Structure formats: structure tokens, C-alpha cells
Amino acid sequence: MNQRIGYARVSTDDQHLDLQRDALTQAGCSVIYEEAASGKNATRPELEQCRKALRAGDTLVVWRLDRLGRSLPDLVQIVADLEQQGVGFESLAEKIETSSAAGKLIFHVFAALAEFERGLIRERTQAGLAAARARGRTGGRKPKLDAKQIRQIKVLLRDPNTSVAEVARDYGVSRTTIYKYCGVVRPSEFIEGTT
Predict the structure, then answer these.
(1) Of the listed 11, 100, 174, 188, which one is catalytic?
(2) CATH number belonging to domain 4-114
(3) What's the pLDDT score for residue 191?
(4) Regions of the chain where pLDDT drops below 70
(5) Nearest C-alpha neighbor of 35 from the set 22, 44, 24, 23
(6) Which helix (H) or strand (E) holds 121?
(7) Is 11 part of the annotated catalytic residue set?
């Protein structure tokens, strides 16, 4: 027997589920999973239990779309997963249900918008990085040694009695960093184990 299963969520413990519960009951939901969790929170145990309870032919019903997904891409992914399982989806406030051709069309428009949004975010990120590079800024970590320190280290290491390990300790970096930034090659330190 196909069931209509409801999912209701509020963001905080202060809010009440009464409005959603009443709407889902009136829409014919025999079981309602209820949760108090932020939409930004990835872990929603009641939603997971609800999804496990759904069988092919069932319909997941929510009061509003924002009760189910954390974002448009998240919502589209959840509904796509439901569709693969043969489970219908219905949102009461927006009057969207994926069991009809018109409902599926509307949801595919949402999916296209979600993909468009992801593309815009990628483009803005790339444009921001390009603008930063044009101003001379590069991403990644700040260098461990500045140009003045590198010059000082090179002067210190001209003295054969100064070990790379001592300089590295004094500057608070590893020997590898000294070799990398100063181009120092002292194979004898590796062989003799004086580092």
C-alpha cells in the first residue's frame, strides 16, 4: 500500500511544528517525521529515518520546499534521489508534486536553476582569483621567509662553520625550508649527520 509520509522541520527548539503537522495531517500523511534542526546543519537524523522508511510508490510530503533542502542544489539532489527510488515528492505551499508531468517539469526547471547557480558561483570565484592575481596577490600560504631573511640566511651560510640546522632553528623553520628558499646544498650535513 502506497503511503504519504510527511517531514516537518523547524530551525530551533523555540519554534513550533503545529502548523506543519496540521497541514501534513490534512494532506493525508499517515506518518510524520519531525525535527528541530537548522537547515544549514548537514546532519538531520529524522530526515534520514524518513528517507529509509520510504518505499517505491510512496510520496514524501513537506509543508514548504525550504523545510527539506538546505539549499536549492541540496533540494534538487534529495528529490532526484527520491525519483530514482520510485518515490514521489510533494510540497504543499508551492503546490509542486513530482508524480505528474507538470510537477516533474517544474522540478526540472529548479534543477536547471540550481546548475545555473553553481556555474555562476564558479565564474565569480574564477573572476575574483584573476582580479587578485592582476593586483599581485596569489593564493596559498604566506611564504615562511621574506626576501630580507633569505638574504641574511645566505650571508650566514657562507661561513662553513654555520650549520643549516642552527640557522633553521634560529629562524623557526625547517632545514627543508632553508634549502628551498636559499638554494643551499650541503651534502656533507646529510652524510655526517650534523643536522
Answers:
(1) 11
(2) 3.40.50.1390
(3) 42
(4) 13-14, 39-42, 184-195
(5) 44
(6) helix 101-134
(7) yes
